[in-house]
Design a protein that fits this description.
Helices cover 35% and strands 27% of the residues. By secondary structure, the chain is α+β, with helices and mostly antiparallel strands. The strands form four sheets. Strands 1, 2, 3 and 4 form a four-stranded mixed β-sheet that branches. A four-stranded antiparallel β-sheet has the order 11-10-12-13, sandwiched between helices. A three-stranded antiparallel β-sheet has the order 5-9-8, with helices on one face.
Length: 251
């Protein structure tokens, strides 16, 4: 999976004047699978887009007030684009993990709103005030002030396939076609159940099977959380070295 986030200024909704918005788009280009034909969007892509949106919203991984610029005047619209490079099964699991990584790597520009309602880069005085209040603020290579988006509970998905009395974890695309009955469990970093997907199928998921899926999801959550935290630390260290070489500073 390849995921990235871009932001643009929007006018916040009247119902939520102090919140921004995240729009998610999942794409399956023809290179990801021979089953995907050029010029015809894959049906699975729209389903996964909706599942990603539900998972990120239900988990509360991002406080949308973090995307506010000025209440009732301006906020950030974050476009989260996820591209599938190899559709070899358990697509929601990989797409969700890539989405979390992209959001964790998002640096939001420091801006302010003028009396005329225009959004402009924050002034030097404003940057100094914000830098004292925001420990996660950094200077980019071009000198622009930015702050890192704060994440809360990380959602993790695990897909299991059922075959008679057997439970197969993280099935490939070929295995999904053969087994046909798929269960996907999504938990947050606290182990709380966020969502449970079972899109039909021939086999009936017994209570014991569901509980087994949830138990395996908790184990996967711990495993991926450790990997994720390790990657974030390594990325932050690399960014500090890069900025030092460019003559910038990190606060």
């Amino acid at each position: 999976m390849l995921a990235g986030v871009k932001v643009e200024v929007m006018t916040p909704a009247a119902e939520f004047p102090d919140q921004g918005r995240i729009v998610i788009d999942f794409q399956m280009p023809p290179i990801c699978s021979p089953l995907v034909r050029p010029g015809r969007p894959a049906e699975e892509a729209s389903v996964i887009s909706e599942q990603l949106s539900n998972a990120l919203t239900s988990s509360g991984i991002v406080d949308l007030r973090e995307l506010s610029i000025a209440a009732g005047k301006a906020a950030w619209m974050a476009y989260l684009d996820v591209y599938c490079l190899d559709a070899d099964g358990s697509l929601l699991d990989a797409a969700l993990f890539a989405s979390v990584g992209a959001l964790a790597n998002l640096d939001i520009p420091m801006v302010s709103v003028t009396e005329e309602g225009k959004v402009v880069p924050a002034s030097a005085s404003t940057e100094r005030q914000v830098s004292h209040a925001t420990k996660d603020s950094v200077l980019s290579s071009n000198g622009a002030q930015r702050r890192q988006l704060k994440l809360r509970k990380m959602p993790v998905a695990l897909t299991c396939a059922l075959y008679k009395r057997y439970l197969l974890v993280d099935p490939t695309a070929e295995e999904e076609l053969v087994l046909r009955t798929i269960i996907t469990v999504i938990l947050d970093s606290s182990g709380h159940l966020i969502s449970f997907y079972k899109p039909g199928g021939e086999a009936v998921a017994m209570t014991s099977t569901v509980m087994d899926c949830i138990a395996k999801s908790k184990y996967r959550m711990q495993e991926l959380q450790n990997i994720f935290e390790e990657a974030i630390v390594m990325h932050a260290a690399g960014r500090v070295i890069s900025m030092d070489m460019d003559g910038a500073c990190v606060r």
